Amino acid sequence: MENAIKYYYNMSPNNIEKRENGYIFEYKEELYYLENCFYSEKRIKEVYELNKIMINNQILVHEILLNALKQVVTTIDDKAYILMRTNVNLNKKVDLKDISYFHYLSRFLINNKDNSNLFWGNKWAKKIDYYEQQAIEIGKKYPIAMETFNYFIGIAENAVTYINDYKMLKPTLAYCHIRTSSDALDFYNPFNLLIDYKVRDISEYIKYNFFNSNIDYNEIAEYILNSNLTPDDIRYFYARMLFPTYYFDIFEKVMENLEDEVKIIYISNNINEYEKFLNYLCRYLNRFTPVEEVEWIKKAINQH
Question: What one-character-per-residue DSSP string does 126-190 give?
Answer without folding.
Answer: HHHHHHHHHHHHHHHH-HHHHTTHHHHHHHHHHHHHHHHTTTT--PPEEEEESS--S-HHHHT-G
